[in-house]
Amino acid sequence: MSGKTDRFIVRPRIVEKLVYHDMERAKKEIGLPYKYMGSSMIPEADIDVGLQEVKKVPPDSSFIKSHRHDVSQFYGIIGDLTVEVTLEDEKHEVSGPASVFIPAGMLHSFRPLRGSGYVMTVLRRGEYE
Questions:
Q1: If 112 and its partner were Cys, which of 27, 57, 59, 105 is the partner (CB 3.0–4.6 Å)?
Q2: What value, to the nearest 5°, has the Cα angle with vertex 106 and ends 124 and 100?
Q3: Neighbours of 17 (CB within 10 A)
Q4: Which residues neighbour 90 within 8 Å (Cβ) at sequence distance 6 or greater?
């Protein structure tokens, strides 16, 4: 049976391009992330949710440039994964399970250091910009 709310249930999509990210390098080193929600999938969506599996961390796995958003962001570090999160000019080594909140306008970057697991991202907007 098809209902009027069927369009609110979607399958994740592979993210091929993402501003501030070297996606070719990411694809070769750890694989492409998946978008689970965003306004490109459901126009009414006011959040952007992504999930990246990290199976193996290569040496010097920095493929994200420092950047900022005009909305807040959340990183969820899941599994036996350790990452480096830079907030403004401070570097933090974060091991999963853990959460990182990034206020709107804060300069930040992220890179996997060791282990394996998942990184979930949530932005308070319908698309990652």
A1: 57
A2: 65
A3: 7
A4: none
pLDDT at 106 over 90: yes
DSSP 15: -
Of 116, 115, 88, nearest in space to 102 by CA: 88
Residue corresponding to tokens 């249930």: 9
Classify domain 11-123 at the CATH superfamily level.
Jelly Rolls (2.60.120.10)
Spatial contact of 89 and 11, defined as CB atoms under 8 Å apart: no
Q: What percent of the chain has pLDDT over 90?
A: 60
For the chain, give the mean pLDDT: 88
Cα separation, 39 vs 126, in Å, equals 4
Find the mean pLDDT for residues 106-124: 93
The residues pairing with 81 across neighbouring beta strands, listed in sequence order, are 115
